[in-house]
Fold:
Amino acid sequence: MKVNGKETTREVDPRRLLVDFLRHDLQLTGTHVGCEHGVCGACTVLFDGETVRSCIMFAVQADGHEVETVESLADGPDDLHPIQVAFWENHGLQCGFCTPGMLMATKELLEENPDPAEEEIRIALAGNICRCTGYVHIVSAVRAAAAGMAAERMS
Amino acid sequence: MVSESPTQSPRFFGSRVKRVEDPRLLVGGGRFVDDIEKVGMLHASFVRSVEARARITRIDTSEAERMPGVVKVFTGSDFSGKEVRCVSAYDGFQVSAYPALADGEARFNGEALAMVIAEDPYQAEDAAERVIVDYEPLPAVVDAEKALLEDSPLVHEEWRSNAFVERKYKSAGFDDAIEKLPHAVSGRFVMARHSGIPLETRAAIGDYDTAGRMLTLWTTTQIPYLIRTGLADAIGLPENRVRVISPDVGGGFGVKGQLYPEELACSLASIDLGRPVKWVEDRREHLLASHHAREHTHEATVYFDDDGVVHALEARIVVNMGPYSVFPWTSTMDTGMAMGILPGPYKIKDYSVLGFPVATNKTPYGAYRGVSRPAACFTIERLMDQVARHRGLDPAEVRRRNYVTQADYPYTSAGGLVYDSGSMIESQELLLTETDYEGLRIWQEEARAEGRLIGIGLGAYTEQTAHATKEFVQRGVPIVFGYETSTLRLDPQGTLVISSSIHNHGQGLETTLAQMAADALGMDIADVRVDYGDTAQAAYGSGTFASRSAVLAGGAARRASEQLRDQLARVAAHNLEASPDDIEFADGRVFVKGSPEKGYGFGELCRIVYHRPELVPEGQQPILEATVAYDAPPGTGTFTNATQLAVVEVDPGTGGVEILRYAIVEDCGPMINPLIVEGQIFGGIAQGIGSALYEEFVYDDEGHLLTTTFMDYLLPGAPEVPPIEVFHLETPSPFTVSGIKGMGEGGAIAPGAVIAGAVEDAISTIGMVMVGEIPLTPERVRRYIDLAQEAASR
Structure:
């Protein structure tokens, strides 16, 4: 499988969850576990470009596929992706635990719909629970990210 | 012109500074307990009671012990006597012992009975399923009010009754007052059991160094030093051989501000096995065994005159605490706070109140953002709406007639709290103006004419924050959480570490503490790092809870930065042949007032102190370090206030409630960082919307918890939370450093009251009914609509 652009080959138990594989076998601990039953969205990663809950998928299901985690967005804190910049500037995170999932869900949304309305943002993020922000600043961040990515495409 | 000096107008205090902690969290570089791996680490899984109350007649671990990877299975007798006790100083308090693993009797559904240790977490969970427990069910005490009846079974057989303690207060003039007052309205107000539900569950790693005799506990806590004391006492270790580290924590909201049996068990298992033992709670365990909150039942009456002015309040407060008194709060916290704050922002003179924290066989009960104030606010605000209805007045007008006014501050409330300052009337007026309240009422009438069920709700509160020594002495807690501490250390490069006793898990304290300190030293916050969470390094103090970190640790950081500034000014003055009073700090330079060329770069001066001690004036330390522990006077807290408004639409068919508009005016004094303040307000309101509409731990009559997944315990998501309009007033505290007040909890206090008021208003066109129970699930709303129809047909 390909993880964050890198070919990765491992042998795992058939029952090993994708999220445990990412976090504990590949040390990609940016992806978080919030509920382990597919509701909260903290474990959201992109699977062949579409969001999935890595807590209710087995690692073996990713055989031959491409997975992107939050670590794929930036090389480090000095090189943030426009979505990350927008979350920073708009105070779109507090404790930061839901944030990786939110960022990946936002990435999928903005790739499909580069200029979403507020209602569309709220529906797109309906599967990602944030317990800190009340979503207000997250919605502002997604709108700002849309603008930031549009500007980047223009330049 | 020295008066124009930049140090006179702060550069960071008051600015919408982007948070310094964000980049690491944004790239997935946060370090949470579950991200930590230790060499030789084992993994724990707990076997939990399936009964609310049962005698444990046998635990058979033999099959589990034979499972692959299993190292050991512990049961209650292995940890016998290792338990959490938290004893209130109140007269007649009945003591409970909360065991690391239950031994003999299980007292709630979800209580840990056995702990399986294996090489791998999957193996530990597999083996936990093979532990066989024989239960002999005992009559469970579930309902707190029934628990107070004479014939109720006792949760603790040796107790006199199920009340941990009984508290009462009656003002001298109460009986006379109610005799003379012409009107009264009463109600029964019920807030369902729910909790903070941080997105990160709890986790712990016990790591005992057998040779060095040193226990390190990594844990998801808001209060590392208090956990260190509680843990050392409970398991019998010298405190200097215990280190507690709380790294990044994924939300706390109070639920991570208590000592838990699993923290004891991971420590004890590691001591026994000599290897690190990790446990990561799953969500089902969290819903079962992480402490619950909010379950209040109030019966209350207000007595008022013809003008709708309330003069007396009577209440009976019952809080369903579960079986054990939790450390460090005791089991009296909710009842005591509710008794104190129930009169709310109103000038109610006479007050009579009874309070019962009741032991039951539900999950133990601890803190959740706002602690009891959401319930108290719900009761008094719902009563104010009933007074309005009784007198034919608008709810806003009744409140206006009853608020504490500017002329009254400092005001001692009927509940004995000292409101230091505030802006009740001004906040309400601003809210009504900003939301065009009169226009809203006209629009509401038009919508009603079309048959829509539209309601408007209002709610106000005072939020006690930054309470310190005096408050906690009055509460009878064994540890008086009097102060928070900041140690500031400048290094030879002139960069600063603020080591603080608080913990930061979303509040932005790495940013706000830096803002508090940087201005005094003319520094950039990019050169400041805030350090916390590790008892081997952090300044000593209680941790983060009760909306007190910015005020107390921030005030301490400010005071300590002033000490460093004075010290640096003396060194500069000594070498520049000037008076220390003439030394100025700005933009990374330290110089003689009026002669910016005569001075040092900030780092240059710090390096002189450390590396050129011959240039330091005699009698002064050659290190740049200052520690301040700050106990904000008068110790009873500084009071933030707010008014909230909601517009809702009720669907009469489904009982669904849609929030069309939500607005708040908040007055938390001068804001260190308005961006962070607004984030806290929005987050609090969203949690309050959960309290109002969705969140509830449902138990059956035998005390089994029925809501153990996010499919049946519902959290508000982005579509359920409306855009929130926020407006500010900034009335400074007369007491605190920079006049700042705490505000972390406030948003969560009022939504229950506000939304219930709005729903009641919405269905009032069907019939008059008092909405006294939340959350307003569709089922409950439908029931209120049925009651309204019955009332109308009478």
